[in-house]
Amino acid sequence: MTASKDQHPATKLAYRRQNGWDRLSEAEKVKVMAFTSDYKKFLNAAKTEREVIGEAIRHLNNIGFRPLDGMVELKAGDRIYAVNRHKALIAAVVGKRQLEYGLNVIGAHADSPRLDLKPLPVFEDGDMVFFKTHYYGGIKKYQWLSVPLALHGIIIKANGDAVQVLIGEKPGEPVFTIPDLLPHLAKDQMDKKMADAVPGENLNILVGGIPLPDSELKRRFKLAILDYMHREYNVIEEDLISAELELVPAWPAVDIGFDRSFVGGYGQDDRVCVYTALRALAETTVPERTALVLLSDKEEIGSNGNTGMESVFFTNTVREITARCVSNYNELTFRRVLVNSFALSADVNAGFDPNYGEVSEKMNTARLGAGVVLTKYTGSKGKYESNDAHAEVVALVRRLFNEAGVIWQTGELGKVDQGGGGTIAHLLAGHGMDVLDCGVALLGMHSPFEVTSKADVYMAYKGYKAFLSR
């Protein structure tokens, strides 16, 4: 009797992407739901890079990690962390093997696209008061109109005092918004390209509309807001020049779908990888090789600045760790540590969206629910600024994940010549280490409300844990 096509032995030779929910046991599904419930709490508490690092520090302190600068010598099992200007962090668990054999590194980024206040933001027009903003990272500007926004950040006064600002997250608190143009008058606007319909200079935040009572007073609407800020925070307008105030969506992270299979929320690029990497490191006891998680800043604007991946924070911290682990430390020892290291660049990828299927090449695009995504290369226009991982590197991670029961898939960031994007992978690889991009697929990336599959979030954690423990 002739075998059917589905029964032919050759069918076993073909790669087949499988939905993760089909491969999870009922017990694992319960774990997925519990894990992502905690993940949503993290998203709600960490909407800016400073808040991400603050939450990370609180978590690390609670589970026995100690600041690196308080340690003289390090031994296997020691749990340490270092912080850079409240915006970047490195945490590590010292392994059994000598550091010269290399580190297992997971690198994610703490920043997300948002709206920043300009140094002098307050103005009045039309008997209303607005804040002027400058957008941060790659956004579709129109997505930030007519949505509730919360104000997060810090003001540093001339005397050095720090004033924390957080408005719009608690029930009953006011929120802010950018009013959109009504469709009745938007003919000219809607005739424009989407990229040009909302100029960046028009992303002005509505913040007030009650003037000071003196009708003869000039700019009395603006002065009323300045008066409120002085009474509430004891700051003056000049103090806003030395402030970092960010507008982010005011809504919480929530479940999506009748079956609650997805998480919707702001900042999942790249906080989904931040959270899963931290959880994985927390559950790493005494690994063979030292396990290290790096949370960098400024990735969304090129990784520049002294808290970005281009800075010396990573290399200097690895030097400090090496000097505390190795007798007779020298620069050659440090270089060997880096060259022999292996890193996962933990950043998100584009999930296939049937509504916009024309921008994806279906065979090589990640699907939500099919597991954590291995991305051999990123970049654009011929893999420009991509790491492009070696075949041996991809094979090692495949084998590691298969042995650990991690559900994974492969993915690219859209069709060739469609667009593209980058991560910190090429910057890590610049130190000589092997690097592979590995993260979670999103829908609506860089929007105020991104979507992940709970199965993929859990598999990222499971994969990172297997990697750090290798």
From TrEMBL:
InterPro entries in UniProt: Peptidase_M18 (IPR001948), Peptidase_M18_dom2 (IPR023358)
Pfam families linked: Peptidase_M18
Class of the enzyme per the UniProt entry, highest EC level: hydrolase
Keyword Metal-binding tagged: yes
A GO MF term: metallopeptidase activity
Keywords attached to this entry: Aminopeptidase, Hydrolase, Metal-binding, Metalloprotease, Protease, Zinc
This protein's GO CC annotations: cytoplasm
Keyword hit for Metal-binding: yes
Cofactor(s) of this protein: Zn(2+)
GO biological process: proteolysis
UniProt-listed Enzyme Commission number(s): 3.4.11.-
Similarity remark: Belongs to the peptidase M18 family.
Protein name: M18 family aminopeptidase
Species, as recorded: Pelotomaculum isophthalicicum JI
Lineage of the organism: Bacteria, Bacillati, Bacillota, Clostridia, Eubacteriales
